[in-house]
Each structure stands twice: as C-alpha cells, then as structure tokens.
Amino acid sequence: MARSIVRRLNSWAEALISVAMPAVCEVCGRPLTDGERHVCLTCLTALPRTGFHLSPDNNDIHYRLADNHWIVDRAASMFHYYRSTPSTELILSAKYRGRPSILSHLARIYAAEISPSGFFDGIDMIVPVPLHWTRRISRGYNQSEYIARGLSRATRIATNTSLLTLPRRHSTQTRRSAAARATNVADTFRATTAARRLASSSPHILLVDDIITTGSTMRDCLRALSSAIPDARLSVLSIGIAHGL
Length: 245
Hints:
This protein is α/β, with parallel strands linked by helices. The protein is built from ten helices and six strands, in the order αααβααβααβαβαβαβ. It has helices at residues 2-20, 41-46, 60-64, 88-96, 101-114, 133-139, 143-155, 178-185, 193-196, 216-228; strands spanning 72-81, 125-128, 164-165, 190-191, 204-212, 233-242. α5 (101-114) packs parallel to α7 (143-155). It is globular and about 50 Å long. The N and C termini lie far apart (40 Å).
C-alpha cells in the first residue's frame, strides 16, 4: 500500500513538472514532438548500443559477473555508459532528479527491440536490485523497480520484489575503485523467506538494475539468490553498462 502511494505521488510530481516545464529531450534539450517521450528520436537512435542481446550467453557482462558459484545464463545492457557524455543524463535524471519513469520508458523500448531474439523466452520473473529503506525514503523510489515494471509491461513477465532485501545500508559506489566497490557491497544483500520457498523449484530469474559498473552489486545479489535457490537459472539486464572497465 505504501509503495503504491509513493508511486502515485511520484507520478503526480512528474506530471506537475511536465505542465510547468515544456517536455524536452533529456539528452539534447530539444523540445519533444508528438510521439516522443523523455528522449528525442535522434538521441535515442544515437545511443551507443551494446548489441549484447545478440550474444546473450557470452559478452562483457559475463566477464564482469564471473564467479565459481553460479553461471549467468543470459545478459544484456541497452547502451554503453560513458561518463560526462550527454547520454548519461538519462540515467542521472532518472536516478537522482526525480524522473524514474525515464527508465521504465527505456526498458519498454529495449524489451521491444530484443524480444525477437528470444532473450525473454522462458524467464519466469523479473527481480529488481533492492534499495535500503532509508535510501528509498530519501529518493522516493527504487529506480530499478521502474525498469522491472517497464519490462513487465512489454513482456507480460511478472515483477517480483519479494526475493531480495538490503538490511544493511552501504555507502554510495560512486567514485570507488573496483576493489572498493566489491568490498563495499560484499554480503550485504540477503535472500528472503519468499526466495527460500522457491528452493525446491528451478525458476529462471531475470535480475535488473539501472547500470552495471564493476558488477559488484549484481554479483552480491546473484550470490544471495543462488544460495537460496540453488537450481535457479539466473540472467541479468541493465539499461547502461560502464564502458572501459
């Protein structure tokens, strides 16, 4: 109930902003035309796409998430995230500036683009990376849930927010080295009782987040899910992936 109220308040806030300020592209600032939302067609076309869905079982994400305890089944990211370039504004605005619907919009677009490749075939549920409750309150939303809901609308695969929790808040990952990022989130995510109830089954779970950098957050979530549901198939999807790591 509380989450529903927060989502409604966020939607109203975004609606008020759109009334007070003409809709412009989050990347280039040009006024949007009919049919465009958040990002103009020119900037959407120019996003540095990864093409990872064309090799979902062997791409850069697999190397970043490699671990002896699980194998990532499929992995995809929409575009390469280059720091201090215009396209980063899409994630920054969604994550820190109160416009998370940007991510649900991009998720729907991306799902439509990669569905013909069979990426979503056989996936049973979509699980967003959770936020600590204090950060969720201060931000007003979990941006990864917006991605999950966008994917759900496009694929009709249910979103499940009950499998993972973050009982201990870790400090921000921004500007940390790869080793420091891994240490910062190590063993912080936990599988819930709901996840452990699935231990006797073998669901195919798609874990989603806004951006993959070193992969430390995803790895810790995958560790928790793999420990609670040993026979689960685990796949991952993000909107952005940091380039050059």
